[in-house]
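Mods, move this if it's the wrong board.
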Amino acid sequence: MTKADDPRLLATRSIALDAALEILRTEGVLAVTHASISTKTGVSRSTLYRHWPQIDQLRTDAFKRAASPPVIAPKTNGPLHADLTWLLGILMSALNDTPWGQIAPQIISGAATNNETKSLINEFMHERMSYVREVFDAAEQRGELAIDAPIEQLIDTAIAVPYFRHLIAGLPLDHEWLESHVDMICRLAEKPGEAS
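Not the wrong board. Structure tokens:
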């Protein structure tokens, strides 16, 4: 067994990261320190420093833990409206009901000053956008899309608007909003007469 596989070390890291996530949710990114995690968990500061010599490393690992939801293969059996409703409904639930929705503003804030956090959020968003791209690719293969549909802009809109609405504007993400958002995207994407 390597040092990295030692169950005690893994357990210590897990306890510390869980505490970091809780502190992120309740107090914000700047409250995540070696001292605050030590106080919350009873893990010594020296042990925490051995695992994470720099506090930004610990914060980034906590961000990664929060940003790693289960991988979801997008539903692509159509029509476009149903597939987008399903996929964006998952995003809406994640923003409303999971730790990710509470921690995302902290990660976005951290990305402004920390390149590792910026890479993390960029990777996360590219992965989510690829799911939406798969939905549009399937709709295109089924012949549902207008030839001049601005697909890249619609992918950006599908993902960016929920984040903006929830995290910046403070507006609700609910089923009524989801339906109108998907309707708007489909009106811009689908061939005339294809409306779902």
